[in-house]
Design a protein that fits this description.
Number of domains: 1
CATH topology: Rossmann fold
CATH superfamily: Class I glutamine amidotransferase (GATase) domain
Strand order of the largest sheet: 3-2-4-5-1-10-11-14
CATH architecture: 3-Layer(aba) Sandwich
Radius of gyration: 16 Å
Helix content: 10-25%
Shape: globular
Strand content: 15-25%
């Protein structure tokens, strides 16, 4: 069984210990390593990247895992053997927040991303928060500092691990970024995709088909046929097939 955690915000904060413990208990990888990848924050500079790395290391140590920060900041880094080789048999591989479009374009079709897919197929848990969750859907917004309105918001192809899903995060607060963004996401998602939107300080934990909602708020779902939206609140379990694709090896 594959193991995933998609967080709307608040990675490495106390509420998220339940989420990462859920992943660690279900992952079948034999090591206790938790890989921390602040890659999505790399365009914001080393200070921001290093802050997320330090928060992640403290967080995973607090739940009894051995944290390892991977300094993957550019697309070239995603081919470095020491970074690619670190992935195999990790208990958890976690991507923290930042720019979803940058994360997707940095990892797509790289040796590192293939190593991640292979590790998940063989028992590693994969987690992502904010950009780290959004980027594994079919599309990802390029949220650069120059993005100031819905009219200038650019979407790039996601990685995508989930071939049927658009995965917005911060969903209960998303209109504070751009007024009207919530409705824009409802109206503009690609045809035949599922909207699987995660609120702040909330996580959807599952295997790609069955999900348990943990944290403080809800996951909002609009089905591929347009039915919905429905909200699934913390403590609920829902069946929703997001089209997991790990290739023939899974």
């Amino acid at each position: 069984m594959a193991v995933f955690a998609l967080l709307g915000s608040g990675e490495f904060l106390p509420w998220a210990r339940e989420v990462d413990a859920w992943c660690a208990e279900r992952a079948t990888a034999s090591s206790d390593r938790a890989l921390i990848l602040p890659t999505a924050s790399a365009p914001e500079g080393d200070e921001v990247f290093d802050n997320w790395a330090a928060m992640g290391a403290k967080h995973y140590s607090s739940i009894g895992l051995s944290p390892q920060v991977l300094s993957l900041k550019t697309r070239a880094d995603a081919s470095r053997p020491e970074i690619v080789d670190a992935v195999a048999d990790s208990r958890i591989i976690f991507f923290s927040g930042g720019n979803p479009g940058y994360l997707a374009e940095t990892l797509r079709d790289t040796p590192f991303w293939e190593a991640v897919r292979d590790a998940v197929a063989h028992g590693s848990a994969l987690g992502g928060c904010s950009a780290g969750a959004t980027a594994v859907g079919v599309e990802a917004p390029d949220v650069t500092s120059s993005t100031v309105s819905l009219e200038t918001l650019r979407f790039v192809p996601g990685l995508p691990l989930f071939t049927r899903a658009v995965i917005p995060t911060h969903f209960d607060a998303i209109d504070s970024f751009f007024p009207g963004l919530r409705q824009f996401i409802f109206d503009s998602r690609p045809p035949d995709t599922i909207l699987f939107a995660v609120d702040e300080d909330t996580a959807a934990c599952g295997d790609g088909t069955t999900w348990t909602v943990l944290g403080k708020r809800a996951v909002t779902i609009v089905n591929a046929d347009g039915t919905g939206p429905t909200e699934q609140f913390a403590g609920s379990t829902v069946s929703c097939d997001l089209g997991l694709s790990l290739g023939a090896r899974f």
